[in-house]
């Protein structure tokens, strides 16, 4: 951290800053300019608080030099991470399209959905058994019964499953049902106790971006998971809230480029919750792959008109197949494969 003293700072002010740096176990480096003195705090500066220094007498500003996130930062881990999900690699050359319904509804719906996901050439499946709904009166998900329908349908095709964990009390159940990838939804991105718990298990985690989360907040949320020892983290951009009301959210394509620079973690894009309309999904998917996303999380329903949740944005099995065909060409153009 760098502490900039004000031009009026006294020697006593400077001494107090130095004493505080030493008390934290760091050493000081003092640089006296013609107008100001600058003090560098040498050592692990992450635990130091800028505010704690800025409210000291004679201090003008305190600025962290290193990034607040460490384990997820690309600077300490130049190669991109590849997450292994039961032998399927996410983050490597191959792009993974994870498709399936918004929510698990019935056994038959899941069987049809799994057949459609597999037929389209996808290797992993999504589906929510616990649903974060805006209204408490809306369908909340089938719960554990949903996990069972989902696991049985996906295992027919040997596809790993991705499903959302909302409540830390269900983590043991998720482990017992051998959920392959735990999804932390947008609304829980900063549920720090939940993040700490999934940080302790040995399961890949998809961390979706909060509705209005900055990149730094999102990466700090990922850092919580990594700090617990779980490095199998996948980020998922799912659209952010802006002033625009013509569509559900704005897909932040810029975030893909930014994340690729800032972190070694793989990046997924959810075009379904971004646009909120099925007809937008192909265009947003193509943009995501072209921009460097490592995969997509796409909603597909055997019969979208009948979907219990997010009917507007679900692709049909046929549309998913067409999407996969068009993505193949984009993937090739950017040196990837599908
Ligand atoms: C979902 O993927 O089912 C979901 C609820 O998404 P989000 O958390 O991004 O809103
Ligand atoms: Mn949904």
From TrEMBL:
Pfam families from the UniProt entry: DAHP_snth_FXD, DAHP_synth_1
Gene3D superfamilies: Aldolase class I, Phospho-2-dehydro-3-deoxyheptonate aldolase, domain 1
InterPro entries in the record: Aldolase_TIM (IPR013785), Class-I_DAHP_synthase (IPR052899), DAHP1/KDSA (IPR006218), DAHP_snth_FXD (IPR041071), DAHP_syn_2 (IPR006268)
Coiled coil: none
GO biological process: aromatic amino acid family biosynthetic process
GO molecular function: 3-deoxy-7-phosphoheptulonate synthase activity; aldehyde-lyase activity
Protein name: 3-deoxy-7-phosphoheptulonate synthase
Native source species: Chitinimonas arctica
